[in-house]
Amino acid sequence: MGLSPVISASSSTSAPDTRGADLHAGYSGSSDSHRLDPSPLRVSLTDVQKTFDVGRGRTVQALVDIDLDIAEGEFVALIGPSGCGKSTVLRLLAGLDTTSSGEVELFGSPPEELSRQHRLGVAFQEHALLPWASVSSNISLPYKVAGRSVDKNRVAELIKLVGLTGFEKALPKQLSGGMRQRVAIARALVLNPSLLLLDEPFGALDAVTRRRMNSELARIWSEERLTTLLVTHDVDEALILADRVVVMSGRPGKIHHVEKVDLPRPRDTSVTRTPAFHELVDKLTGMLDGAGEDS
After folding, report:
1. Residue 5, domain member (yes or no)
2. Which CATH number goes with the domain that contains 38?
3. Which residues contact 151 (CB under 8 A, 6 or more apart)?
4. What pLDDT is attached to residue 62?
5. Which residues contact 47 (CB under 8 A, 6 or more apart)?
6. How far is the C-alpha of 93 from the C-alpha of 227, rounded, in Å?
7. What is the pLDDT of residue 3?
8. What's the structural domain count of the chain?
9. pLDDT in tens, 178-203
10. Nearest Cα residue to 1 out of 142, 133, 208, 99
11. What is the 3-state secondary structure (H, E, C) of the chain?
12. Do 43 and 229 contact (CB within 8 A), yes or no?
């Protein structure tokens, strides 16, 4: 159901954020480097392979030789052609599936352990809100799933953070698509997760609303500063939000390229009008076109 994660928002009027430069200093080599210097405080996939049994003795290799580290507090976006295994990577990190071989470690523990501790926040393309529950009740749901008392102050803080003050008692049917996704993000954030996983959370929205939500998520992330992995097909979205963009090739999915996004923070959609942004879009779109030919 994707009940454990949530998000928040912040002002874009603060001084430029240099945190990305500090994160990048932890990497060695070219922009294709996707291994961090040794540190226990990170998310890591090491030599991960994933094969699915499709019946009648046939198998499909979804992932091969996946090696990726994500620094604590880093925002990484995962892009690639359809069917390349992006969502499979996210499901492995969420503990919703297991590797065929290789290791997945989240801050020194397996994903299942963080899931049991309710330290994972997940939001999918489908918001999965309870239709009979209010905004406040939907955001509070992870407390009930975890067997904890609801922190009403935290719920109120997140409602304000995602810009839904005044809609606390509204039902999902009374909200726009973008507002429903904000509730889903707030729900994912409510238990203060160590890792936030976003699987095409704005994929079902129209283009105008999606761009607005990109700015909202950038603002929210700048306040919460959670370690985050976003799966998306949208290159613009990846560059607006991420510290690094990981490009995957067609099936079997493997990491083709890792791009450091050296665009100043805080960011919003105004960054899309800059020459540096357009240069990155052209570069990554060209890589995706080539990756799709491999499928």
Report:
1. no
2. 3.40.50.300
3. 143, 190
4. 92
5. 65, 66, 67, 101, 102, 103
6. 12
7. 39
8. 1
9. 899 999 999 999 999 999 999 998 88
10. 142
11. CCCCCCCCCCCCCCCCECHHHHHHCCECCCCCCCCECCCCCEEEEEEEEEEEEEECCEEEEEEEEEEEEEECCCEEEEECCCCCCHHHHHHHHCCCCCCCEEEEEECCECHHHHHHCCCEEEEECCCCCCCCCCHHHHHHHHHHHCCCCCCHHHHHHHHHHCCCCCCCCCCHHHCCHHHHHHHHHHHHHCCCCCEEEEECCCCCCCHHHHHHHHHHHHHHHHHHCCEEEEECCCHHHHHHHCCEEEEECCCCECEEEEEECCCCECCCHHHHHCHHHHHHHHHHHHHHHHHHHCC
12. yes
- Domain containing 210 equals 19-293
Given a cut of 70, the residues of the chain with pLDDT beneath it are 1-41, 291-295
Q: Whose structure tokens read 């609303």?
A: 209
Position 38 scores a pLDDT of: 53
**pTM recorded for the entire structure:** 0.83
Strand partners, 42: 71
Domain assignment present for residue 288? The answer is yes
